[in-house]
Amino acid sequence: MSTMNQRVINNPKFQNLVVKRGRYAWSLSILVLAVFYGFVLLVAFQPTLIGSPISEGSAWTYGVVGGLFIFISFWLLMARYVHRANGEFDAINQEILREAWKGEQQ
Amino acid sequence: MNRFYTKLMLALLALAPQALLAAGPAMESAEKQSLNIPAIIMFLIFVAMTLGITYWAASRTKSAADFYTAGGGISGFQNGLAIAGDYMSAATLLGLTAMVYSKGYDGYIYMLAFFAGWPCILFLMADRLRNLGRFTFADITSYRLDQGKVRTMAAISSLTVVCFYLIAQMVGAGQLIKLLFGLDYEIAVVVVGALMMVYVTFGGMIATTWVQIIKACLLLTGGTIVMVLAMTQFDFSYTNLIERVTTLHKNGFALLTPGNLLSDPITAISLCMGLMFGTAGLPHILMRFFTVSDAKEARKSVLYASGFVGFFFNVIFLMGLTAILIVGQDTQFFEGGDIGGKIVGGGNMIAMHLAKAVGGDLLLGFLAAVAFATILAVVSGLALAGASAISHDLYARVIKKGKASESKELAVSKLASIALGIVAVGLGILFEKQNVAFMVGLAFGIAASANFPVLFLSMYWKGLTTRGALAGGYAGLICAVTLVLLSKSVWVAVFGNAQAIFPYDQPAIFSMPLAFIVTFIVSKLDSSRQAKAERDAFADQFVRAQTGLGAAEASKH
Fold first, then answer.
1. Is A93 domain-assigned?
2. What is the pLDDT of residue B12?
3. Which residues of A touch B122 (CB under 8 A)?
């Protein structure tokens, strides 16, 4: 392993970033997968419910409302993630790299 | 090179009038297929534009990096549009509108599953793809494994996926041009293949990206215009639309109930798995991550791309529903004026008929020209991905073991694009009668089983070894292809057997877990010295994956 990489790994900020970013990314992914496959299971096992109106006489069915909700909420989650990853996490990342380069020059 | 290009242009110009002449007699015999002048003019403008872009791009494509990844100089927003362009293929526009038209809510599920892969790609893969990859996704899977063997496998599975996806595009193209020009299906497919070859060979990734961007804008505009015009007939009220659709269909809300397509739970889940994880295994989509400068831009690309895709899917859903009333009750769109009979130009032409019904020949011409540009762009992206698998992975790394000169590698990739064009034409003719959206589904199933598991584990799991990756990747590929061959859509529809051996259409629910399990077990059992070295190399890869350290330099070369 290069000394540069070694310095990055030894930096507690790196370990911290890896844990924090990883936890954030995985929890969002699990949320997305749970919501989506929950919906797919409903589609598979309760097709009549998916096709029935949300209230008596309404044209909006559970399936369409749920689908629309998935489109919008997933995209908002993505926007939140990009905001945090490109702002907070990337700032820490740059800091780690700067410190590693500084060590390289010494 | 330049002289050759000029010659080729001249040859094309010489060909054009003949193609138009050839359309003459064929059209007289075809029923009600009149020459659509606006459509043809817009279509020719598009061809001229794409050739112009190709000419411009050819002068900027000097290095292998320019050819494969546009030198890494595409911005996040541009790349987002281009990814959306790659994703919203003609098969998506034509096939999914047709699916909503004929199967209702099932089409919406399809689109949801197409969409739901994006968040996971963003959260778990976008950074690492950009930080570790260079030209092909095999750069990542083979990062610390045996270059030759792993790249060979990645190339084989990439080419399989590319071929399946190409079939869908070519079928769409053939039907579209047949409807527009009255050309024979076979001739139409050959014309598309020929144009695509010119275009990829000279334009490389720079041209592909810019055509994708322009085309994505046009597609979004065209689709939205058709949807808005169609919705004016329902006072922009979804309630009004649904009430009229359900009174038309005697079984009321059945159209909004999942059913026909997703007849049982295993099919539904398998389809969703295939579409969702397949996105993360499509070589031409993965390649797009290498055209931006860093992980930050890669994340933005995914956000923009998914926004456009999500919007467009909802537009398509409305297009399909309005078409039930607008196209489905109009005698001019049925052969012999028989409502409920065969649709003129085939089932995939619903979106085009809708455009004609709400906006006349002008809008039909516009949408048809956009769909054609779409086919050209997507087919080119696919050909580029396939060609890079052949030249960068197979030729430069496996055969020449990294000692090929850049100019040789470029020459090989151009030859490979031409070969792929020929294959695409052949397969397009063979699969004429298939529903195109369904073929895309098959490509996704294979991508999810052959590419995704190994790619994912190579980024996340330290314990992955060459033996494990090979065993799992090939198991996934062979299992997925075999199950597809034995399923109804190929075993019965193509080979003409009476009964399908594999009862489901989608292989992903079986083949994807199989690939993961085999990779895991074989890697665990691998106690060779090479395996130990591969596990030890993970730390270096991990730093680069997380921080991008070393990635910036790599993309400049």
1. yes
2. 40
3. 78, 81-82
Judge if ipTM > 0.90. yes
- Nearest CA distance, B358 vs chain A (angstrom): 24
Nearest Cα to Cα of residue A77 among A89, A67, A85, A65: A85
Distance, CA of B114 to CA of A32 (rounded, Å): 14
What CA–CA distance (Å, rounded) separates A17 from B161?
Answer: 36
How do residues B170-222 score in pLDDT, each as one tens digit? 887 787 777 766 677 888 888 888 888 888 888 888 888 888 898 899 899 99
Other Cβ atoms less than 10 A from the Cβ of B66: the count is 18
Does A11 fall in a domain?
no
Is residue B519 within 8 Å of residue B472, measured between CB atoms?
Answer: yes
Nearest-Cα residue of chain A relative to residue B126: A82
Question: Nearest to residue B261, comparing CAs of B109, B39, B44?
Answer: B109
Put simply, the answer to whether B265 touches A37 (Cβ < 8 Å) is no
Residues near B214 by beta carbon (within 8 Å), at least 6 away in sequence: B49, B53, B373
Confidence of residue B164 (pLDDT cuts 50, 70, 90): confident
Q: Which of B169, B203, B171 is nearest to B185 (CA)?
A: B171
Alpha-carbon gap, residue B510 to B522, rounded angstroms: 18
Residue A45 lies in a domain: yes
- The answer for A 41-70 residues in CB contact with B (under 8 A) is 41, 43-45, 47-48, 50-53, 58-61, 63-64, 67-68, 70
- Determine, yes or no, domain membership for A6: no
CA-to-CA dists, residue B181 to B167, B174, B419, angstroms:
21, 10, 27
Nearest in space to B324 (alpha carbons), one of B242, B251, B239: B242
Chain B residues with CB under 8 Å of A3 CB are: none
Cα B90 to Cα B320: distance, rounded to the nearest angstrom: 15
Record the tokens describing residue B269, joined without a space.
Answer: 């889940």
Contacts of A70 in chain B (CB under 8 A): 112, 115-116
pLDDT digits (tens, 9 = 90+) for B419-441: 999 999 998 888 887 665 567 77
- Say if residues B185 and B175 touch (Cβ distance below 8 Å): yes
Domain count, chain A: 1
CA dist B204 and B384 (Å) reads 7
- The residue segments making up the domain with residue A73 are 22-101
Q: Which are the contacts of B105, defined by CB distance < 8 A and separation ≥ 6?
A: A50, A51, A61, A63, A64, B255, B256, B257, B258
Residue B421 has a CB neighbour count (10 Å cut-off) of 28
| Residues 6 or more apart in contact with residue B369 via CB below 8 angstroms | B39, B42, B43, B45, B46
CA pair distance B299, B293, nearest whole angstrom = 11
Q: Which residues contact A92 (CB under 8 A, 6 or more apart)?
A: A13, A16, A17
Taking a C-beta distance cutoff of 8 angstroms, is the pair B455, B281 a contact?
A: yes
